């Protein structure tokens, strides 16, 4: 099965561009609905940060140092590097005796406009805490410290990453099809779109026991702090705010998106084949409407899917549309 | 015929993302080589600026006010809004008695890092001359003035746009399949990928007469001033510099790219279906190697196609590859 046409961009009454991809809606028992090929192997990238955070909670490391919902939301998030994000991660690290140099994520300029402007206009360089993955890495460092492991916590055979891989394979129900180095230098394990959706369904209907408690706690942290999972103006934050805690959505690089929908016991995973973020954001928005979590009239649906595309003078130049058959 | 797989992104030994599209290499007589569907209707967007500039030259408007190669390169370009671009367009406009308010392209922040920083850090707003299309619009204003037409030169029925449409249909050999409003508010006419490649072949082997002279003059202006067609660090500029005037390449929004290759009498046009610029840049680079205009060892080929993809710590995370069968 090849990729399905998901999202189209129209201009002047003609289809100008299209985004193809693979989508799975799963419950605990398996595929409920799918478009494209559920067996396509993908890298979840940052969309699986809540899976990478499971060992942090299940090991007792999070409780040992008193991490709260804000810390866990940051550990599962890809933040904008706004002061509200950077200050919290810095306080988390310093509270454990860590410094910026202990991180292994690398530094990049923040997306947050104010912080970006502050750094650029003062000729300051970004720190590693500005990296959108610094919350995940603070979680890795917290676990590393708890288990007295070495400093190179992103190496494939480091106890932290071995624990991440174990959790990843357990919740996806698959042996990792491979692994790649992520933008933040952590290993990213490969799975099928179906496996990723199945993992999200597990977070939606946590079983009893330590695993289920950790899944529920991470979902609740993300749902309670949409601003710490991404940031102002970002799709994850906008969509979660509009859904008022009923569902969690999380993006990953190269156009991956997942959703956790407890009230229906469903998990969602999608990959736009070309890696185009706008297509993945439009597709997850359409799926949240499809699953009854957003009204088609919600402003957030206009922002990411149905609203007109305007040019530099504000004139309407075109629109996005769901392709025929997706999601209805 | 559906889109062909052109460019792939690999990570950890697995294919993570793919760009599909349509490519035509044409000579004056028609298709020489093609991938995907040559009959796919596309919007050339800014890739057809040298076509939109034909009436400026053919009408005598350019000579009437003494436009040189730099002006014509700017008219055919999508510049970075660097001072070297903005100062030239401002001088061009003021020399004709026009002001920024006479433009109809709208304003946006420039791509050029120095000018971007200057505006952002001084709380200044960009002017319309910063718009990447301001050179094309200066050309429209020059023609409008020459034929004593009204100020709303981007309206579909304005004499300037009627002349552009006539030239577009003549060089593509097609009646426009439709039109859309471009980002700069000018009409953008639709054609097939084959028609756009045929038009570029016309620029590669200009016939005698006014049309041919204009085509040769616009090619030579672009080839002589790669820096004015785009800017430092941009694919059009980098590739043209590396080809040392042997060919002209020009990009358009939503992943369109064209090339003009006089020494072989060939025109190239491509559209990456998903609108992903990185795919179009990689594909045109591969085609320039395929046509013998670039050595596979040229650093510019590594920059846009074969070089490793690195993360924030400089570690190699993956690579781009041409899909099997493209272009060889």
TL;DR of this structure?
The first copy, chain A, has 14 helices and 12 strands.
Low-confidence stretches of chain A: none
The total domain count of chain A is 1
The CATH topology of chain A is given as Beta-lactamase
Termini gap of chain A: 19 Å
Largest interface: A-B, 49 and 49 residues
Question: Kindly state the mean pLDDT of chain A as a whole number?
Answer: 98
Mind telling me which CATH architecture of chain A this is?
3-Layer(aba) Sandwich
Radius of gyration of chain A, whole Å: 19 Å
Helix and strand topology:
The structure is a homodimer of 328-residue chains.
Chain A: E1 4-11, E2 14-27, E3 30-35, E4 41-42, H1 49-52, H2 54-58, H3 61-64, H4 69-75, H5 83-95, H6 113-121, H7 134-146, H8 159-172, E5 179-181, E6 187-189, E7 191-192, H9 193-204, H10 210-224, H11 226-229, H12 235-242, E8 248-252, E9 256-261, E10 266-272, H13 277-290, H14 299-306, E11 308-310, E12 316-322
Antiparallel strand pairs in A: 1-2, 1-12, 2-3, 2-10, 4-7, 5-6, 8-9, 9-10, 11-12
Helix pairs in contact in A: 4-7, 4-10, 5-7, 8-9, 13-14
């Amino acid at each position: 099965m090849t990729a399905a046409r998901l999202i189209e961009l129209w201009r002047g009454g003609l289809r100008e561009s299209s985004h193809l991809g693979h989508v799975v809606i799963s419950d605990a028992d398996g595929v409920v609905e799918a478009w494209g090929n559920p067996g396509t192997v993908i890298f979840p990238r940052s969309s699986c940060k809540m899976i990478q955070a499971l060992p942090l909670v299940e090991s007792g490391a999070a409780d040992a140092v008193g991490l709260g919902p804000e810390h866990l939301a940051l550990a599962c998030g890809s933040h904008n590097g706004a002061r509200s994000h950077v200050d919290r991660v810095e306080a988390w690290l310093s509270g454990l005796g860590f410094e910026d140099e202990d991180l292994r994520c690398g530094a990049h300029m923040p997306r947050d406009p104010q912080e970006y402007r502050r750094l650029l206009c003062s000729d300051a360089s970004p720190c590693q805490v500005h990296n959108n993955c610094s919350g995940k890495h603070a979680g890795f460092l917290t676990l590393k410290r708890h288990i007295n492991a070495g400093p190179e916590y992103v190496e494939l055979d480091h106890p932290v990453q071995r624990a991440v891989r174990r959790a990843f394979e357990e919740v996806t129900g698959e042996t990792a099809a491979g692994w790649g180095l992520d933008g933040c230098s952590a290993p990213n394990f490969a799975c099928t779109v179906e496996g990723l959706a199945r993992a999200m369904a597990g977070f939606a209907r946590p079983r009893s026991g330590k695993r289920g408690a950790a899944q529920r706690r991470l979902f609740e942290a993300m749902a309670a702090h949409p601003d710490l999972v991404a940031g102002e103006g970002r799709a994850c934050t906008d969509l979660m705010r509009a859904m008022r805690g009923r569902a969690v959505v999380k993006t990953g690089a190269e156009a991956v998106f997942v959703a956790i929908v407890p009230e229906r016991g469903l998990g969602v995973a999608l990959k736009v084949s070309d890696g185009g973020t706008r297509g993945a954001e439009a597709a997850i928005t359409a799926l949240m409407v499809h699953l009854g979590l957003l009204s088609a009239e919600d402003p957030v649906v206009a922002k990411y899917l149905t609203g007109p595309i305007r040019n530099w003078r504000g004139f309407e130049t075109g629109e996005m549309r769901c392709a025929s058959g997706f999601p209805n």
